[in-house]
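Components:
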Amino acid sequence: MFRSLHMKLTLILLLLISSLMAVVGAFLTTSVSSFYIDTFYQQIDSVFSPEREDIVSSLRQAAAAGGVDLMGDMMDANAGSLGIDYHTRNYFILDGKNGSYLTGSAEESDLPREQSANLLSARNAVLRRDETFVADESSIASNYMDVAIPIIGGDNAYIIYILDTKDTVSGLNDQLFSIIMQALFIGLLISVLLSFLLSKTMVGPIEKLTAGAERVAAGNFESELPIESDDEIGILTGTFNEMAGVLQSTLAAVENERNKLDTLFLHMTDGVVAFDNSGNLIHCNPAASSMLQREVSGTYGDLFGDRFPFEAVMAIQRPNFLEDDLIAGEKHLELYLAPFSDASSGGVLAVLHDVTEHHRNEERRKEFVANVSHELRTPLTNVRSYAETLRSAGGDIPPDMANNFLDIIITETDRMTNIVQDLLTLSRLDAGNAEMVLSRFSFADAISSVVRSSALNAKQRSHTLACEMEADLPLIVGDRNRLEQVMMNIVGNAIKYTPDGGDIQVTAGALADSVWMEVRDNGIGIPEKDRERIFERFYRVDKARSRESGGTGLGLSIAREIVQRHHGTLALADHEGPGTTIRLTLPIAQPHSTQ
Ligand code: ADP
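Structure:
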């Protein structure tokens, strides 16, 4: 309850008014009492001081004559100066020796029962016959004030005793107290009202500011707080509005940055996985999930704990990082680990780089180099060994055999030339600088020409080579020479890989925007496991047979490259029975071609 500023204000005001009133009250009552006492003694002094010897000596004369009544009359005459009001302040004329009551402005019963210290002192003075003594030792705390003056005249001795009951000052103080209490009550009322007023002018704006701060904390920057005054609260409200504005633009900038990063993470090809400083997963982009080939979850320990301990990564000084290779399924990945920010608010960032293709290319390159070396070494070894035999034999070798040897040397040299020629073609195709000479030509004519050229070859192997084409095959755009080379290769393979007396059928047709050609043989066929691999460089199902028939293992790879450059396809087709069927598909028109 006392936590609210309003209550605190009220309480402070109440305390302030109460303590002020208490101080004023104490000061006033003390002042009034002191003033009253001082006035009493001044009045006594004004009558009985040595300067006023006339009154004292008159009293002494009356005393010497035993005129107690005269003394009483004289006192009555000076009652005004002495402040004797016959009510609260009275005078008494007492016997100097025994202190008994003789006369006075009040009855004997108004005398205090106990003789006061002043009275006793005055009686002692009478005994000493000290005429000048005035007993006026009054305590401010006692509930009366008195003065005892010995009057010695001849043998007679009296004491004039003036007694004030302090009732007047007590009454005055009571009145003062009641005024102060009333003032206090009104003061308290005013302070409560003031506190309401103050709270309206002070607490109101603070409450508005608090509500505004709560809105900003909840992310609502829409409404600006109105500045209602020029005082500190007005300045505070202005500063708060400014701060909210800066906060809003900072948040917008941060949000923008985050969106940028999110988009970057979402679309980047590298995988990014982030962990907090306890190793818990906080972010993982789709690329990382697909590289690791699973839904990424858990902690750093689960994912990369077997590579490097988390603490070791956190201890790295930027810009250093840790690096390792990772194999996930068939993927080869490079893993980079580095800490981000400081230890208390940062964590670890893991970046995954997919090097599968690079790895595969590297493997292919090695395999290719090994294949090329091997393919060239075999004919070279043959050439060398026959040449050496011819040289070492000299003229001893029969001419037939020597001719035979020379034929082999020429054949092997041709083989090497073929290989080198094929490699050159492939490398041109790879480099993209094998220019395609495009022209519009008849697909049917090209096939007929290839079949005609292969007829002799087929005949030598006793194959039947039949060609059946749909009528009115369209003209197509392409590099006729190269496409005929592809067709020659396919028909040649059918002739090569079919035992003598085989059956080879060439069929062709057209679809909406493409043409196709199929070459079907009833030869040795291609085992299932090798079906896709025959288009790889140097891949041969039966190396010995291929070499025997002068194959390099590059024919189909070159053919596929050429067909792909024409945006067509070259693939094995499924078919019933033994043998092989290869299907070539080509688009009728080439994109970007004006032919
Ligand atoms: P090659 O110069 O050895 O003929 P290709 O690239 O033309 O090389 O063919 C690759 C391999 O595919 C051949 O070695 C062969 O084993 C296989 N092949 C191609 N065509 C046929 C076919 N019609 N019948 C059986 N096997 C074939």
